Amino acid sequence: MTPPPGRSTLPSPGRLGLVAETASADLARLGWTGEADVDLLWSLSRSPDADLALRTVVRLAEALGDGWSELDGVLRRDPLVRGRLLALVGSSAELGDHLVGQPEKWRLLAEHRTALPTPDEVRSDLLGAVEATAETGECASDGLFRAALTGPKAVLALRTVYRDHLMILAAADLAATVENEAVVPYETVARHLSDLADAALTAALAVAVATTFPDEPCSVRLAVIAMGKCGARELNYVSDVDVVFVAEPATTAATRLAGELMRVGSSAFFEVDAALRPEGKQGELVRTLDSHLAYYQRWAKTWEFQALLKARAMTGDVELGAAYVAAVTPLVWNASEREDFVPEVQAMRRRVEEMVPPELREREIKLGRGSLRDVEFAVQLLQMVHGRGDESLHVQSTVSALSALADGGYVGRDDAANLTASYEFLRLIEHRLQLQKLQRTHTLPPFDDDEALRWLARAAHMRPDGNHDALGVLRQEIRRNAQRIRRLHARLFYRPLLESVARLDSDTLRLSADSAKRQLSALGYSAPQNALGHLTALVGMGARKGRIQSMLLPTLLEWLGDTPDPDAGLLAYRRLCEEVAEQSWFLRLVRDEGPVAQRLMRVLGSSEYLRSVLVNAPEVIRLYGDGASGPNLLDVDPTETYGAILKSSARYEDPVRAVGAARSLRRYELARVASADILGLLDVPEVCRALSSVWAAVINAALDAAVRASVADRGEPAPATIAIIGMGRLGGGELGYGSDADVLFVCEPVPGADDAEAVKWANAIADRVRTLLGSPSQDPPLEVDTGLRPEGRQGPVVRTLSAYEAYYTQWAQPWEIQALLRAHQVAGDQDLGIRFLLVADSVRYPEGGVSDEAVREIRRIKARVDAERLPKGADPTTHTKLGRGGLADVEWTVQLLQLRHAHRVPALHNTSTLQALDAIGAAELMSPGDVDLLRQAWLTATKARNALVLVRGKPTDQLPAPGKVLSAVAQVAGWPGGDAGSFLDNYLRVTRRAKNVVERAFGS
């Protein structure tokens, strides 16, 4: 080993990390004090506990006597042996004591330089310790031996050889802490420990045979089945080994044989625990295979099948053990069909966690929160639910199962990799804690015990990272991995689709045509044959995607079945999947992220409007989560969206491409707002404000693009400035999904420009804006309506500010003054827009108020509208815009009060209907009860009108007759239970009461 830079001189004990008072004397006793000892001393300094390592080496030297010089020479010249020995004795006091007690065993550390002992070599060593030979007789098998050595001598001999092999493995496992040896992978360590346990119990069984049948051949066939971590070949250094015994016949002799095996094994190696047998510790220790099966088929609880997932024939009668595993395996994979299987497993995990004292839960790496059990329970639950239909999941180790789940698409590859890394990190920490004193422990030292944690950090290969020392890195890694496990465990273990998949019969899991059609009909699909075609296409999207779809669809179909139109929803889901087929994030998101799948099904099964928009804006689905691991539907600021639309369109010189970019962001925002609306996350005013904001942004983008293109074509500056004034619901910031954008175009010639030329140019710009916005598109339409301009559709589309002022001052009709109440600048030159509004203020809020004649004219026009404007065949009680107590009634009433009182109530200078109603109530122009009735009517009608568009996918104002569509409208409108009758009764009641208020206002 090369000394650290600048450390080629002999270091002092303190610099080596030695703090014991005897350190200098101990170094002198070993002769490690010269310049030639620098490499050796720096290796010592890297041992996890340099003081412990030094004391143990001194004891070893004393035990070796004259043999110390040979070991000393090896340590000086052989980095491999030096690294293994110093790492071992600085990490494990117990194995250090074992080595001191058997000092010549240091040679074992050099014997297996390139590979650990094989399973056959380990078994041969342990059987040799008790001089075992193959058993003979009728019950003999490949796994049955008879020991020549029994009693305490056999236990001592077995313990010694077992500790030898633990020492060999631990030295190789720990060596990277001292020398630059490769780190032994966790799976290799766990597998070797499991092989060692197999060999140990094979030898213990040999002793038990000789003890139980001292004078005759063994008269029973006994198979030892490994369970738990040993069964999965992922054993710890110090762990109980869970076993189950199968015997033929299950006689008293068989019970004595199994009991003796447990006694010898527990005395020599580790606790041998048979508590996982049928009926637990109260049950018979030994059963026949038929007895085991009878119990599992009739009496076993859910947790017992979960335990059987790890069952592996370990030793004893090989044929009988294989028969047991073959017989119980199908029961494991059918266990998820049991009623309440998933909730029972989830409840069991919660009970296990609750057993940990609260003060230890953050330090308990096996059973606490974010612990090994979280990973294991999540993996086992996913295996058992999905393993019925996928044999690739029939594996036992946690790491192998995670890999299989990722390969099958049941878990995201990143999630599987992260869980595997965190699991292996915690297992490494667990191994180091257990090695220290060879005690069964899973509890971290107190977080304020720097000395204990620093030892653990060094033993676990932690290195400074530039920001933290090894101790800081360990604390950071413990926290990071626990948090990662908690997050992924919650996402996978409590995934809502698991219960649905578990409830399905095996035919449906394989997408059997008949069973699928039966289930589809039962779920409410009116065309199950068509739905089956969609399912077939979805599961045929490729091996991995098809498996993910097979896993998702049972739950998705059930959720779609609760929506107004599951058939259309399933078709939309298929189209969406085909649209994003090349984007891996989509299925991963639907599978893994909390409420995403359920929300998506609700949206697709409810809204024709969103079914078409989402196909063209699928990225919005990323926002369907609950915000726990990313943004959600409410994390988007409409103001930021407004700016983004303008910025995006400004990148393009071509006006068509510029407006296309604006349309794309509008599409995204419409999908976001509509999704949040259907899911009940936005109220009516928030929906209207968001829709108005995005409309204003797109109009602004179109105007800017048209002006820039014109200036480029002309090769000279624009001859006029232009502003666009929002009217109607756009001006009031109260647009719905089906609303047109009512606007006025106003221009003003720049200094030196000819007025006629300026107006002609501005008209061309207005035409271009309307053409750009009105071009065919798959998106919801962008209709710009200039019908509220002076003189209506007969008047010019664009006027100068002075022409507007002259017209409104001299010629304005009462309806035109009323229309100005909602005028608000939305696009173009802001200064010009504000000056237009100042002109409008003088007309809509004149000193002394509007004339009594104008008020009478407004009343007359209202009466005419009531009599003539309702479309032919429309139901006046359920037309949301022009019907009784509908939007027009409320808005005309508010505007009448504004015309009469705005000159003395400044708060009425407001283009919003709802805000104007607040001002009317505050000014006591109407009773609070009447104000509330109008507000409720406006909100109810707007909600119903928006829901109509969302359901049907096109603008419409008429509520349908009772039936499927009205039920869908009620559900989308958020009416409790989606009860169409109750929804309609409420609508009629609210609007009828509002109509009474309207009639009083217009009659007074």
UniProtKB/TrEMBL annotation:
One Pfam family named in its UniProt record: GlnD_UR_UTase
Stored InterPro entries: GlnE, GlnE_rpt_dom, NT_sf, PII_UdlTrfase/GS_AdlTrfase
Catalytic activity reported: [glutamine synthetase]-O(4)-(5'-adenylyl)-L-tyrosine + phosphate = [glutamine synthetase]-L-tyrosine + ADP; [glutamine synthetase]-L-tyrosine + ATP = [glutamine synthetase]-O(4)-(5'-adenylyl)-L-tyrosine + diphosphate
CC cofactor: Mg(2+)
Enzyme class: transferase
Record's keyword terms, sorted: ATP-binding, Magnesium, Multifunctional enzyme, Nucleotide-binding, Nucleotidyltransferase, Transferase
GO MF term set: [glutamate-ammonia-ligase] adenylyltransferase activity; [glutamine synthetase]-adenylyl-L-tyrosine phosphorylase activity
Residue span of region Adenylyl transferase: 505-1004
Family of the protein in this entry: Belongs to the GlnE family.
Protein name as catalogued: Bifunctional glutamine synthetase adenylyltransferase/adenylyl-removing enzyme
